[in-house]
Amino acid sequence: MTSKANSIKLFSISTPPMRAFHLTWMAFFVCFFAWFACAPLMPVIKGEFHLSVAQIANINIAAVAITIIVRLIVGPLCDHFGPRKTYTGLLLLGAIPVIGVAFAQSYESFLLFRLGIGAVGASFVITQYHTSVMFAPKVVGTANAASAGWGNAGGGAAQAAMPLLMGAMVMAGVSETMGWRAALIVPGVLMIIMAGVYYRYTQDCPEGNYSDMRAAGIPIEGGKKGGWDSFKLAAVNHRVWMLFITYGACFGIEIFIHNIAATYYVDHFGFSIKSAGLAAGTFGLLALFARALGGWISDKAALRGDLNSRVTLLFVMMIGEGAGLLWFANADGATYAVIAMLTFGLFTHMACGATYALVPFVDKRALGGVAGIIGAGGNVGAVAAGFLMKGLGNTQQTLSVLGVVVAISALCALAARFSSEAMESAAMPSKIAA
Fold it and tell me: Mind listing the UniProt keywords for this protein, alphabetically (predicted)?
């Protein structure tokens, strides 16, 4: 028997699962805020460094490219070292480029720091891992989706807050050039503070920390060993790669929109930087409830049906995302564009939540590997979207093509259906000595 939580008591921090739940979404919020802090300031940065369209595309690609590699690594690291140490390390190391970007003096140095900041996006995998080992199957979908969704909202908060923070710096008497630089130091400092809090107040699983449990001979659920073994187990499972594609088509689109929305509203609809940041921020702030809603509906669907009910739900949500994205791409006026963005954003966030409501059931022996590979799929999708925009040179055309691609990729969700034997295996508790 494990002491995984069978319910989510939002206003409690008295148990290890609930402390992990709250601190993991807070850490993820800080990381996402830092990851996308540059995006709403790009119109100003673009002018200072005299960036071309191709250079901006390169910066957007760099912001998500390195995350692919780091997500593949941190999943197995969680199996081996535990999510507590892995998250603390990522927060501390990630703060270096986050603070460093404020000191960039050229396009090349800015690009290098932006590449480094991308590693912070791997925080998502640790967040999903930590809640997956803390909560029982009946609520794990909701726990995963809520923690990820509230953390994702950090991206929306950055879109809205960073222009205001820069404005406050300018009002205090500094130049605009110094204003955006000073503003970008703030998220780096927050990451350092969060690292200390996370290490002090969380543990790896309900029974304790992995290192202590292994030393005491206490078995760890699924016999997690981590490292290459975890990655190999996950890599031979076809459902992992089907969900890799679907996550690329929902979370990848989410990241892409975070990076281009503010600039799109400025260039295409004539918004001011503050207005564009607020409009783009609403997309990210949908994560406060929409991703959790996707996970909650998935849990309810599974209780009424079976594991494949989660799969069918994901398919429906992705069809809705594709249709909404096509609407956004062809919206004539600013008002319709914002409404369309919120509509397809709702489906996008819900599809993300529904995807990670499936992750804990794919292969319990390699939870870190599964979470890492599927999480990396989101960034592969974002990078692919970035290259597509660079190739087409037109944001509207890019959005239209992506809408069609998302709708087609929904078929991969159906290809991830579970056989009767696989559903029985997913439902069985697995305790093997590590």
Answer: Membrane, Nitrate assimilation, Transmembrane, Transmembrane helix
Residue listed under structure tokens 């929109």: 257
Q: Which residues pair with 135 in a beta bridge?
A: 5
Domain count, the chain: 1
Rounded to whole angstroms, the Cα distance separating 314 from 351 reads: 6
Domain assignment present for residue 149? The answer is: yes
pLDDT confidence of residue 431 = 39
In a domain, 213, yes or no: no
Instruction: Considering only residues 371 and 259, tell me which one the structure prediction assigns the higher pLDDT.
Output: 371
Confirm if 158 and 39 have CB atoms less than 8 A apart. yes
Other beta carbons within 10 Å of 98: 30
**Cβ proximity of 254 and 328 under 8 Å:** no
Sign of the Cα torsion 247, 267, 114, 34 reads negative
Provide the pLDDT confidence category of residue 324 given band limits of 50, 70 and 90: very high
Rounded Cα distance between 210 and 84, Å, is 10
Does residue 125 lie in a domain region? yes
Beta partners for 208?
Answer: 205
In a domain, 348, yes or no: yes
Whole-angstrom distance, CA of residue 254 vs CA of residue 352: 9
CA distance 368 to 262: 34
Per-position DSSP letters for 308-371, written without gaps between them: HHHHHHHHHHHHHHHHHHHHHHT--SHHHHHHHHHHHHHHHHHHHHHHHTTGGGT-GGGHHHHH
- For residue 288, the domain's CATH number is 1.20.1250.20
Mean per-residue pLDDT, 418-433: 58
Average pLDDT of the residues in 402-424: 89
Model pLDDT, residue 2? 57
Q: Render pLDDT for 160-193 as a digit per residue (tens, 0 to 9).
A: 899 999 999 989 888 888 999 999 999 999 999 9
Q: Residue 338: which domain range? A: 16-205+219-426
Measured between alpha carbons, how far is 30 from 415 in angstroms, rounded to an integer? Answer: 35
State the pLDDT at residue 429.
Answer: 47
Whole-number pLDDT of residue 425 = 61
Residue partners of 216: CB distance under 8 A and separation at least 6: none
pLDDT digits (tens, 9 = 90+) for 188-215: 999 999 999 999 999 999 999 999 998 8
CA 136 to CA 159: how far, in whole Å? 34
Query: What residues have CB less than 8 Å from 361, skipping those under 6 apart?
Result: 137, 307, 418, 426
Query: Distance (Å, rounded) from C-alpha 103 to C-alpha 96?
Result: 11
**For the whole model, what pTM was predicted?**
0.80
Rounded CA separation 146/294 (Å): 9
